[in-house]
Amino acid sequence: MKFSELDLPANILKALKKMGYEEMTPIQEATYPVIFAGQDLCALAETGSGKTAACAIPLIQKVDPALNAIQGLVLVPTRELCMQYMAEIEKIASTTHVIPYAVYGGFDKKIQIAKLKQEVHILVATPGRLIDLLYDGILSFAQVKCAILDEADELLKVGFLEDIEFILSCILHEHQTLLFSATMPDDIKKLAHDCLRDPQHISLITDRVAPESIEHYFSYTHPKQKQIELIKYLEGEDINQVLVFCNARHMVDSLFRSIRKDLRDIDYMHAGLTQDKRSATIEKFRSGKLRYLIASDVAGRGLDFSHVSHVINWDFPRDGEQYTHRTGRTGRMGRKGKAFTFVSKHDLPSFRKLIRSRKITPCWIGKDPLCENNTPQDRRTQTRKRTFRPRPAEGSKKTE
Ligand code: ADP
Ligand code: MG
């Protein structure tokens, strides 16, 4: 369905056209009537499927710019996501009088307070800074009609949950609440339900949990060999941009130090850096000035990098959700992407769980540890061996 078939105001349609949005994505089409009708919603759809605009378009449409008050509140788990969400709302609202604003940590609070005292209709925020501002008493939620939790399962996890409950408790009157996510683990589902009133559930996540636009490669490698194997792998690939995930900040630092001599146009980011450095690095990566970015999971959720062709899991992800979010930084909007994950002996139980739960068909690069073990369960696992492109002679024998 086209946006022009909706009853959208002409100015919003014009902005969408300028952005190159003509056809609605499936999640946009499915959620629009529910959001527009004012119902609560829990919406699940793959990474890169257009959830931001699904929510932002009807939200902007609902705001009354003549009323100088916050009417829409969007909560996101990271600062980078806050800026990205804000940028999308700004574009969609560019032809309207709706004023969005983003507040997040690591940025001068005085400037934020000054802006909030002027006029803001849609506030996009990370929970920490928002609570700070609530305690300062300069925010009023009296006119909030709609509250949105993006990356909802992350926001409802221990660590964030109390903050979110507190923020939502500050909206005293009846309002609409919308939850958006690409994943929803069972233990979070109940919490999600507790935030909502008689909600609609829309899930476009099919049986095949991992997006089909991503191919999943794995390499069973001794930790000491990982760097050599990674360089070898990248040399044989047609690369646009590569995002490498590590599980800890110190791993990001040390991998960057040791691999920068082999790869050019490379930088790193994690939550331990200043906000200025974080923002500058994301911007450089987004604009294509960097080819490789080594990152912790602050870059794993929600960020829209259209040119990432490869996601590397240097460290095996903690669980299936983390795998989905990291690898979802590639293969966006139906483009093709590749995920490459190092598996050590110690990761094998998690690996088995991952491919079962996400229904992933793994392709092994090099040795397939499951075939070697050859237990009845392993034999059921579909694997396809693949050799590096620079060595085609070996490939003819080993490939299926
Ligand atoms: P998600 O939140 O589901 O991971 P995003 O909202 O970040 O996905 O959108 C992914 C990409 O798709 C973005 O680059 C966005 O600009 C683009 N996009 C969203 N909706 C449309 C549309 N209707 N037509 C074309 N591109 C779209
Ligand atoms: Mg998103």
Descriptive account of the structure:
The chain has 400 residues and is of the alpha/beta class. It folds into two domains: 3-203, P-loop containing nucleotide triphosphate hydrolases (Rossmann fold), CATH 3.40.50; 214-382, 3-Layer(aba) Sandwich (Rossmann fold), CATH 3.40.50. Helices cover 39% and strands 18% of the residues. It is built from 17 helices and 15 strands. It has helices at 10-19, 26-36, 51-62, 79-92, 109-118, 127-135, 152-155, 161-169, 186-195, 226-235, 249-259, 275-286, 320-327, 348-357, 369-373, 376-380, 392-398; strands at 41-44, 72-75, 100-103, 122-125, 146-150, 176-181, 200-203, 214-220, 241-245, 266-269, 292-295, 308-313, 337-343, 363-365, 384-386. The strands form two sheets. The protein has an eight-stranded parallel β-sheet with strand order 10-11-9-12-13-8-14-15. Strand 10, helix 12 (275-286) and strand 11 (292-295) form a beta-alpha-beta unit. The chain is globular, with a radius of gyration of 22 Å. The model is unreliable at 374-400 (pLDDT under 50). Adenosine-5'-diphosphate binds next to helix 3. Magnesium ion is lined by residues 51-52, 150, 302.
